[in-house]
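haha ok so turns out i had the wrong file open the whole time. this is the CORRECT one, sorry everyone. sequence first:
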Amino acid sequence: MAVLSFGSVFLAILIGGFIVVAKISATLEKEIGMRAMAIARTLAQSEEIKGSIGRPGGSASIQPIAERTRLATGVDYIVVVDMEGIRYSHPVEDRIGKKFTDPDLGPALANNEYISSAEGVLGPSVRAFVPVKVEEGTRQVGVVIVGILTPTIGSILRTIHLQLFYSLGTGLIVGLLGSVYLARKIKSAMFSMEPEEIARLLEEREAVFQAMGEGIIAIDTESRITIANEEAKRIIGKGEEEIIGRHIRDVIPNSPLPEVLETGQAQLNREMLLNDTIILVNRVPIRFKGEIIGAVSTFQDKTEVNRLAEELTGVKAFVEALRVQNHEHMNKLHTIAGLIQLEKSQQALDYIFDLTEEQQEITRLLAKNIFDHSIAGLLLGKYSRAKEIRAELEIDRSTRLKELPPRLKTGDLVVIIGNLIENALDAVRREKPERRKIYFAMFDRKDSLTITVRDTGPGIPEDRREVIFEQGFTTKGSENHGLGLYLAKRYVDLAGGTIFLTCPPEGGAEFRICIPKGLEGQEGE
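then structure:
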C-alpha cells in the first residue's frame, strides 16, 4: 500500500509538472503571437511598403525596412509578399523575388489577418499574417508575415529546472510520509474486522448470490466459467462439477457470452431457448481499471411470464374481434332498418338469414377445429377485419389445430398468425375490391404444424425478399413498423421451424410455415 500510494503521488506530481510546463508553453506562444501580430500590423501601415509592393524594384525599398525592424524587434523573420505570393523581403536575400508557397498564405490573400503555428527548419514558430491595403483600405496589394521561433518544452524545462526539481522533491517527501501513514492506518484498521468476520461477510454475500431468483453465470478472459448460482445450474440442468472451470460453450453451445467479452458491448433483454425453456438474458462485460476481465450473464425463466402474456394476448384478440364485429353489426343494423322503412320486409329477412348463416358457419368452423380459444378469437377478429376493408379472407375448411408443437406457445402462434394476416390485409388494401383476397390454412399433422397465408397484393420485389425478415425493414414508410415479420420469424426459429416466401409471376405473396413437433435440434443459449 505504501509503494502504491507513493507511486500515485509521484505520478500526480509528475503529471502536474508537465501540465504546468505545457501551460507555460501555451502562454508564451500566445504572447509571442500577439507580439508578432503587433509588428506585422505596424509594417502593413507603412506608406513606403504600401507604395513599393507590386512595383519593379520594390524589394530595394522594402528589404531594408524589414531587416531594420527585424533586428530592432528581435523577431526571426519578416517577409513581405504581393498578391501573387512573390517575396519582397526575406532574411535570406537569395529568396527575394521567389514565390512564397506556404499553404497558410491563402486566407491572408483573401483579406484576413490571423496567427498560425508552423514547424520550420529552425524549429516551431508562430507567424502573424496581416494584409497590406491601399486606397483607404479598399484594395489589398500584399501581405506582411512576421515569424518568431517558440521555445520548446525542453528549453522551458532547462530554464525552470531548479524550481521544478525543488517542488517535485518537496511533494515526493510529503507523499512518502503520507503513504507510510496510510499503509499503517489501513493495516491496523482493516475495516475494523478480524479475518473471521471478513470470512463470515463473504459467506453472507455468497448466500445472497445463491438465493437470487435469476440464474447468474460469469466467465473470465479465457471464457471459462468462474461463478454459477443454483438457479443457473437448475436451468442449465448440470451440476457444479460440470460447469465451474469449463469453457462456456462446452456447457452452453453457441453461447454469445464470449462475443460480449471480445466486443465489450452489453446485450440486454435477449430471448432464447435453453433446455426447452424460454429465458430472458442480459449479458454485460466486467471491467476493471478500464480493461475487460470477464463477462456475466443473468437469465430468468419466462414460463410464468409467457403464461400471463398468453392470457392477455387471448383477451386482446377477443376484444379486437368484438370491436370489429360491433362496428360491422351497427352497419348491418342500419341496412336492416333501412329495408324495413322501405317496406321491403322479405328482403330484410333474406339479408338477416344470409348474415346469420355466414357468421354461424365461420364461428362453427373455428370453434370445432381450433382447440385454442385465443387462436380462434384471433382468426374471427381478422375475418371481420377483412370484411371491414371489403376484402375476402378465405379460411380453408380443412384448417385444424388440436395441439401445439412442444416448443411453440399460444402467444407465439398469435404473433405469427396475426402479423402474417395483418400484412396480407395491408397488401390487398391497395388493390381493387374485386382483387382483395386472402387465403389462410393451418394443418395439424402428426409430425408438424403447417401454416399458409397467401394474398393477391402487389407482391414483394425480388431485391427485397432477402431482407424482409430483418428488424426495422418495412414498406409502409413510417415509424413503429418493421417488426411484424421479424417477430414472426423469430418465434418460428425459436420453435425450430422454417418460413418460406414465394411470389408467383401473376402477383401476390405466399408465406408458408412448417414447425416440427419433434424436439430435435434445440438451440443453446
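Residues 27-154 form a domain with the Beta-Lactamase fold (CATH 3.30.450.20).
again sry for the mixup
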